[in-house]
Write a structure and sequence with these properties.
By secondary structure, the protein is an all-alpha fold. It has one domain. The protein is built from 18 helices and two strands. The chain has a two-stranded antiparallel ribbon. A hairpin with a 2-residue loop joins strand 1 and strand 2. The longest helix has about 35 residues.
Length: about 375
């Protein structure tokens, strides 16, 4: 027979244990599907499609002038930049918007360079066509500078704005769209698939070894998780927030990894002896892409990126780019033995900022879409 006190303890333990079991039973588990629900994707992403189309129109007009003799005008480029209400100004970072539109800004410089020829040796003019690319007087490929900067200042900026708001199923669709991907997650920019990755998604795919653990795979996993968590409601806020943080961090890391890729490309190209003009032009083209991906993150709010604006400035200095005064990017083509060590410093800084391993840095030098023929 139990004493009264013992009986009370046993009853309490029994009730408490039963309650805990019920709590555990009532705690829902997020069921994550294997595929993304694309039913509302096209309807939800009309704005993002307009953004990408407008960027493509601006860059396409500049690229048209890569052919010797083709010209464009500053008003023409401004009109293309502002034609959609002006959507790029609305969602882009203020610093970039002023840089591209202002008199003596990038669109103006592109118009000045069009129809002319350029040589790194004579860098005091207005720029022009060199080796199949349109450069300004500093040796910056104008199409790449404008486009790759917008990968950060417009696309990533818009993405982080979306992630900072209240996530809905439409939000998830919009994040995928502004990245340049689609619900099929092809992990390739090849025409072998009906809807390949474009814009930033293409570069995420290039940095992914397609082994299920790379940047692209991580983004796909977390987009599907985010959609499931949002659909699940308040029971899954924790999982929702985890997915958002992962998407933002992987997106930024893929951009940084691509800067590493272009640094390695410039090093490889300019380390050759008896450089041709085509090799020099190609190296300046790649250097500009590294500058654009880096500059695009400047001005993104603290807490929405890992790299600081001071660190971005350090990288730009190593690339011979300055926002005030004259940039001297062309010197990489003229004095590679003197300038190339700066790129190794840049890679080391990026490695330190993001905690990349030696193996990752090595892997970033490759375009895995081409390597694997996918």
């Amino acid at each position: 027979m139990f004493e009264k006190g013992q009986l009370f303890v046993l009853i309490f333990i029994s009730i408490f244990g039963f309650s805990c079991e019920k709590d555990e039973e009532s705690k829902k588990q997020l069921v994550i599907p294997t595929v993304y629900n694309s039913s509302g994707f096209q309807f939800n992403t009309t704005r993002e499609a307009a953004v990408l189309n407008q960027i493509e129109a601006v860059v396409g007009e500049i690229e048209r002038c890569k052919t010797q003799g083709n010209t464009t005008t500053y008003p023409t480029l401004l009109n293309l930049y502002n034609i959609e209400n002006p959507i790029l100004t609305q969602i882009g970072s203020a610093g970039f918007d002023g840089k591209i539109q202002s008199p003596n800004g990038w669109l103006y410089k592109a118009s000045l360079a069009s129809g002319k020829s350029y040589s790194p040796i004579d860098s005091n003019g207005n720029g022009g066509v060199y080796g199949g690319y349109l450069f300004d007087e500093a040796g910056l490929d104008m199409a790449e500078l404008v486009e790759k900067t917008m990968f950060g200042s417009v696309m990533y900026k818009h993405g982080t704005d979306l992630m900072a708001g209240t996530a809905t199923t439409a939000t998830v669709d919009q994040l995928i769209a502004i990245l340049g991907s689609n619900p099929g997650f092809p992990n390739t920019s090849s025409s072998k698939v009906p809807k390949p990755d474009v814009f930033m998604a293409k570069y995420v795919a290039r940095r992914d070894k397609n082994d299920g653990t790379g940047f692209y795979s991580q983004l796909k996993t977390n987009f599907i998780k985010l959609q499931a968590a949002v659909q699940g409601g308040s029971d899954f806020y924790k999982e929702r927030d985890e997915a958002i943080v992962a998407i933002r961090q992987v997106w930024e890391k893929a951009m940084a990894a691509t800067v590493v890729n272009y640094c390695k490309t410039v090093q490889s190209t300019l380390s050759n002896t008896n450089l041709t003009e085509a090799q020099k032009a190609s190296a300046l083209h790649s250097l500009t892409e590294a500058i654009g991906f880096t500059y695009g993150l400047k001005g993104i709010a603290t807490g929405r990126k890992v790299i600081s604006d001071d660190q971005i400035k350090q990288l730009l200095v190593l690339f011979n780019y300055t926002e005030t005064g004259k940039s001297t990017c062309y010197r990489f083509a003229l004095q590679p033995e003197k300038e190339l060590p700066k790129l190794e410093q840049a890679v080391s800084l990026i490695k330190s900022i993001y905690g990349f391993t030696d193996q990752e840095i090595s892997d970033f030098s490759k375009n895995w879409i081409n390597e694997q023929g996918r």
